[in-house]
Amino acid sequence: GESVGLHLPTLSVQEGDNSIINCAYSNSASDYFIWYKQESGKGPQFIIDIRSNMDKRQGQRVTVLLNKTVKHLSLQIAATQPGDSAVYFCAENYFGNEKLTFGTGTRLTIIP
Amino acid sequence: ETGVTQTPRHLVMGMTNKKSLKCEQHLGHNAMYWYKQSAKKPLELMFVYSLEERVENNSVPSRFSPECPNSSHLFLHLHTLQPEDSALYLCASSQDRRSTEAFFGQGTRLTVV
Predict the structure, then answer these.
(1) Distance from CA of B24 to the nearest CA of A (A)
(2) What is the DSSP letter of A105?
(3) Which of B43, B30, B39, B23 has its CA nearest to residue B108?
(4) What is the pLDDT of residue A1?
(5) What pLDDT, in 10s, does the model give residues A78-91?
(6) A34 contacts in B (CB within 8 Å)?
(7) Residue B1 has what pLDDT?
(8) Share of chain A above pLDDT 90, in %
(9) A17 vs chain B: nearest CA distance in angstroms?
(10) Distance (Å, whole) CA B48 – CA B53
């Protein structure tokens, strides 16, 4: 069945360093992938998405890479800040389907 | 502040109680969602409404009953819940059901005793 998983449940990074959060997916028919950030006591917040016809997309301090060959997705956060501490979820879906499939999340902790 | 507001933030209810969760958005979005977030589990989609019509019911028990009276409001009516229903219930909205960007509320932390 469909599944979206993350390689590591927790990740600690020194403030100012870059961080990479990984995600594996199994549905080769997925049309797009999304990264969400969830801070403590808050709902998930959209960060960035990428369509399946792209390999890379950049936002403000974030880059998402998509490797369809190995069904792997990553979120790179540059020059991490304390405010980046949160749980990060990847999600995938295909057009015409309302049901986003979420992973279990990676908790990113930024060490001052 | 995402523009999606949920009330109450916390709710404790007995298994015989009836309560309702409320979600409100004034973003002009046409699609609204209920998700359940349990510890160490992925977010689970419960219901999807598009233009006030339910388009997805993801095999949710009947003790959860959604209501969408207009495009800005979404309710989740709860009755005879079980302790395993304790979780964070998140409401979200998006421009339409095909939009990739959903805006989430802060959630209602529900505890069933």
Answers:
(1) 14
(2) -
(3) B23
(4) 35
(5) 999 999 999 999 99
(6) 100-101
(7) 67
(8) 71
(9) 27
(10) 8
Read off the tokens for B78.
Answer: 């709860």
Angle at Cα B18 formed by Cα B14 and Cα B19, nearest 5°?
A: 100
Closest by CA position to A23, among listed A111, A109, A102, A95: A102
Give the pLDDT confidence of B39-62 residue by residue, as tens digits. Answer: 878 899 999 998 888 887 778 999
Please state the length of chain B: 113
User: Which of A75, A55, A77 lies closest to A67 in space, CA to CA?
Assistant: A55
Amino acid present at B42: P
Predicted confidence at residue A4, as pLDDT, reads 60
Question: Is the separation of the CB atoms in B61 and B15 below 8 Å?
Answer: no
pLDDT (average), residues B105-110: 96
Q: Assign residue B83 a region (left: φ > 0; alpha: ψ between -120 and 50; beta: otherwise).
A: alpha
Tokens found for residue A103? 């992973």
Chain A residues 10-29 within an 8 A CB cutoff of chain B: none
